[in-house]
């Protein structure tokens, strides 16, 4: 999960919401749950080992070797190094069928986030503060649960362990290198652990996140500091929009039952928010103002540049104007609507209606290069709860004291093993 801003420590009380994890909600098909429970302690140990040995984007060699060893031990076909430290694990069922892919990310974050865990990073300046260690444990768990059912498995499951997500490079590079040229998945799935209550899965058809854009305004270097401050205020005033006047940029509220993502009255819908401060520099005697914005609605992206130009005109700087352009316009996570509906039905059947919720809103500030896979292959990306109020764990990604309840590994493995099996169909069940 890539984020552009650094989140400062904040008050997180509200996000811990009403829905806490209740193990009795676990009602995945028995064999899957039994295998998941049997693997759980091992997966926790794998996760803690990765947490202690985090590696930055582009340097994930130990992580990659750990994953390859586990996949080989399970009997999967393993391919490495299509791009960077990628690992692809292929599990072929005994019966013919379609191909479903599952994605996990390898990289950790730069920085020294406060970490209350006992198994802290032993690699100074690098931390798993986004939860990719949890994702790897879940993906290995799914692989092992499904490998144990190979004899009744229909089709093929491809496990994509991608490097360099935080730099937004890995997924695109893997596609450009033809990772799916010899084996092309029909569908792809993935998840991100975040600050929702553990036990909860949240998903949404279409965009999970707001569209993240970085704009660059170039002006002749003639404006005073006061002019620049006023201009940035004017741009902000013109572009910013929120449905209720509430602040969707207070991301700690995503789990709130009233204004959070899954509420009909969520503040996280129909907004454009932007950085309050712009990055300002001079370059070739031009003044450059760069800023990030987050827009929920694709159809509104097209008008942004001309609106900025009009603000510059109206602010009296027409003669200084040079250009305004996007300097970053990555694709956003875009869930296939019918696969999302299928996933919700299947997960609610196996885990209970309350454990899987539809997001009404879209998460600001974050994005995931899983979006590049979805440009090629229809897929669904889920948010998985990792917070636990009773334990004092708040799984707010890229934030100090980021802690994930490892029960989320159990939830992830059993839920998504069931979903993949449902997508592949059983040998005696026609699709
Ligand atoms: Zn991240
Ligand atoms: Zn992430």
Key attributes of the depicted protein:
431 residues, 19 strands, 9 helices, globular, eight-stranded mixed sheet, alpha+beta, Aminopeptidase, binds zinc ion
Structural notes for this entry:
The chain has helices at 30-52, 61-73, 132-148, 170-176, 225-239, 304-314, 337-351, 370-376, 407-424; strands at 2-3, 77-80, 87-92, 95-105, 109-110, 126-127, 154-162, 187-197, 201-203, 206-207, 211-220, 272-274, 279-283, 286-295, 321-328, 334-335, 356-358, 366-367, 379-387. 49% of the residues are buried. The longest helix is centred in the N-terminal third of the chain and has 23 residues, at 30-52. With 431 residues, it is an alpha+beta fold. The model is unreliable at 5-27 (pLDDT under 50). The chain is globular. The strands form 5 sheets. The protein has an 8-stranded mixed sheet, with helices on both faces. The two termini are 33 Å apart. The structure holds zinc ion (2 copies).
Largest pleated sheet = 8 strands, mixed
> Mean of the pLDDT scores?
91
In the predicted model, the low-confidence regions spanning at least 5 consecutive residues are 5-27
Biggest sheet: strands side by side, in what order?
Answer: 2-3-7-4-8-19-9-17
Percent strand: 15-25%
Helix share bin:
25-40%
The count of β-strands is 19
Please work out how many helical segments DSSP would assign. 9
Cα end-to-end separation: 33 Å
What structural category arises from helix and sheet content?
Answer: alpha+beta
Blueprint of the fold:
Layout: E1 2-3, H1 30-52, H2 61-73, E2 77-80, E3 87-92, E4 95-105, E5 109-110, E6 126-127, H3 132-148, E7 154-162, H4 170-176, E8 187-197, E9 201-203, E10 206-207, E11 211-220, H5 225-239, E12 272-274, E13 279-283, E14 286-295, H6 304-314, E15 321-328, E16 334-335, H7 337-351, E17 356-358, E18 366-367, H8 370-376, E19 379-387, H9 407-424
Parallel strand pairs: 4-7, 4-8, 8-19, 9-17
Antiparallel strand pairs: 1-18, 2-3, 3-7, 5-6, 9-19, 10-16, 11-14, 11-15, 12-14, 13-14
The structure holds zinc ion (2 copies).
